[in-house]
């Protein structure tokens, strides 16, 4: 008699092997104890019928920002409703440890600026029962979660802790500064940090507009920190490289050069964030090949790619061009449905369009980038419900306006009112330069790359890419019509064995006897990803976007069912995982 048996499903075990039908998985305690054809697996105290469904490992999401949220929230939404059973945080050079008492506000403003997590929520929610990074890990270890958590030490708080204002202002580090930072990184990794992250992209800025500490760090600082991490014999070095968004055409090639040399020098994995930009839309191919060449030479240089385009969501519940207009002020305290109804008044519509047009004309010369973004109607697409993150040109606001014989701004206005104000439009900035998912498909099938960049917990009011695992299954495996799809076993491996291996999670990522019982049972044929919706459930009334999925029969963490039929069960078996 087993504690739990998942009975008679289609097993996709995470190794990349072809799916196997009629398989059952037995669990005792928190370990998988049998994986075999159904007839060979004995009964369970509890059984889950997986007939007509797939059984997969739990998804390992290596790019999240729950650094603050994990200190007050056990559910770890928006990731956990999408089959995620392990999250890695501390990405992009931002985090909350180490932290001196007088640095708390700075680190909150840094996280709010870079990752759009409401500062008031962080201020009210974070416990700050730590100063050092090992103490931060100890605080996390006291928590109970719906998924396992793991953390990297980030360059931003590290630099501020060692250098104070000099570090925050991105002044050059002295040899003593570097030595102290290196020592703290070594101590952090020895204590269980999964590695070190730094950001060099100019788009990552604090609320005061200043770049993340470490953005301009010299090579000796980066290499010395990398060597300190490597001395622990474990850890991943993560880089958000300069020029990520196409703002610097020279930087990406310089970045991949030192990244490859760093991986050679420290003998540890170096993963760097890669997205297709609109300025040099094919540059990523060269950078990917450089990574492949480094891997062929025995160095772990691993591009981290996304499963869908990166941009913003436009709607009454997020941001839209009429929101700050004088005539919109009386509507701000209304529900979105009431806003949509009120916006049906022709006189109000005329005023809002006129006010918005005047504002845009006033910034046309002084803020050309902002003007272009707001006015690029050909790149603003209906998202829909169920969602479509690979929209065709006819779903753009520009195309719809032409079909309806109106100006694009009028079309945008009316689409904001759709579905009682719940409708959203997506505007991709990265990963959609050619108006299709072909580049993403190439990245997802490139042998050098690993899947990441879901940003769980971040960009709370603009995107909800934490739902990427569900999108990978519904779109890339099952529904895509604009190009080739991906095999189910390939996508599952990308989200389990591959991501687990990068961070050294040797006890999970595949369905095998002796591995940790992190599993999903998914009604794959009926799996759906719904439209994001805004909720105000963060501390201090902070808002964020959540995105529901339909079709997760069960998610199991450490042998316990944490979600059943797309709802939390209340079980919290997740704990801190140390390197």
TrEMBL record:
GO terms for cellular component: cytosol. CDD domains: D-aminoacylase. It comes from the Bacteria. Residues 46-562 form the Amidohydrolase domain. InterPro entries: Amidohydro_3 (IPR013108), Metal-dep_hydrolase_composite (IPR011059), Metal_Hydrolase (IPR032466), Metallo-dep_Hydrolases_sf (IPR050378). One of its GO terms (molecular function) is hydrolase activity, acting on carbon-nitrogen (but not peptide) bonds, in cyclic amides. Keywords: Hydrolase. SUPFAM superfamilies: Composite domain of metallo-dependent hydrolases, Metallo-dependent hydrolases. This is Putative hydrolase. It comes from Ilumatobacter coccineus (strain NBRC 103263 / KCTC 29153 / YM16-304).
């Amino acid at each position: 008699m087993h504690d739990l048996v998942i009975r008679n499903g289609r097993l996709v075990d995470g190794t990349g092997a072809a799916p196997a039908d009629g398989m059952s998985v037995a669990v005792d305690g928190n370990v998988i104890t049998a994986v075999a054809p159904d007839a060979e697996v004995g009964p369970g105290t509890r059984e889950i019928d997986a007939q007509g469904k797939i059984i997969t490992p739990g998804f390992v999401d290596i790019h999240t920002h729950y650094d603050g949220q994990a200190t007050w929230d056990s559910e770890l939404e928006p990731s956990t409703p999408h089959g995620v059973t392990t999250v890695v945080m501390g990405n992009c050079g931002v985090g909350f440890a180490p932290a001196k008492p007088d640095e708390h506000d700075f680190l909150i403003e840094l996280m709010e600026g870079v990752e759009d997590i409401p500062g008031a929520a962080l201020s009210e929610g974070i416990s700050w029962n730590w100063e050092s990074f090992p103490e931060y890990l100890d605080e996390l270890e006291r928590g109970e979660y719906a998924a396992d958590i793991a953390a990297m030490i980030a360059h931003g708080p590290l630099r501020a802790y060692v250098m104070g204002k000099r570090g925050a202002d991105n002044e050059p580090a002295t040899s003593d500064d570097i030595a102290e930072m290196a020592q703290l990184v070594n101590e952090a990794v020895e204590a269980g940090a999964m590695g070190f992250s730094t950001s060099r992209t100019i788009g990552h800025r604090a609320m005061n507009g200043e770049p993340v500490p470490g953005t301009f760090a010299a090579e000796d600082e980066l290499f010395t920190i990398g060597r300190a991490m490597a001395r622990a014999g474990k850890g991943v070095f993560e880089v958000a490289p300069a020029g990520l968004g196409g703002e610097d055409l020279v930087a990406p090639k310089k970045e991949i050069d030192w990244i490859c040399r760093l991986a050679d020098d420290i003998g540890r994995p170096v993963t760097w964030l890669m997205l297709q930009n609109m300025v040099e839309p094919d540059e990523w191919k060269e950078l990917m090949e450089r990574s492949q060449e480094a891997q062929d030479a025995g160095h772990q240089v691993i591009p981290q790619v996304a499963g869908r385009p990166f941009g913003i969501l436009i709607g009454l519940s997020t941001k839209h061009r009429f929101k700050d207009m004088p005539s919109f002020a009386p509507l701000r305290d209304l529900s979105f449905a009431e806003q949509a109804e009120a916006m049906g008044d022709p006189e109000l519509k005329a005023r809002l369009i006129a006010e918005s047009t005047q504002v845009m004309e006033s910034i046309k010369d002084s803020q050309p980038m902002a003007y272009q973004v707001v006015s690029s109607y050909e790149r603003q697409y209906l998202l829909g419900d169920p969602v479509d993150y690979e929209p065709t040109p006819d779903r753009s606001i520009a195309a719809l306006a032409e079909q309806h014989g109106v100006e694009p701004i009028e079309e945008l206005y009316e689409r904001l009112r759709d579905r009682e104000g719940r409708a959203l439009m997506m505007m991709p900035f990265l990963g959609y330069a050619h108006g299709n998912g072909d580049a993403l498909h190439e990245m997802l099938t490139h042998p050098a790359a690993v899947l990441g960049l879901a940003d769980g917990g971040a960009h709370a009011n603009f995107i909800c890419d934490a739902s990427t695992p569900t999108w990978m299954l519904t779109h890339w495996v099952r529904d895509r019509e604009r190009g080739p799809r991906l095999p189910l076993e390939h996508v599952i491996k990308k989200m389990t064995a591959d991501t687990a291996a990068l961070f050294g999670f040797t006890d999970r990522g595949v369905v095998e006897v002796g591995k940790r019982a992190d599993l999903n049972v998914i009604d794959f044929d009926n799996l759906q990803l719904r439209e994001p919706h805004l909720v105000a459930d963060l501390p201090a009334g902070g808002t964020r976007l959540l995105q529901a999925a339909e079709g997760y029969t069960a998610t199991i963490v450490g042998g316990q069912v944490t979600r059943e039929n797309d709802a939390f069960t209340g079980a919290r078996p997740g704990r801190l995982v140390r390197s």
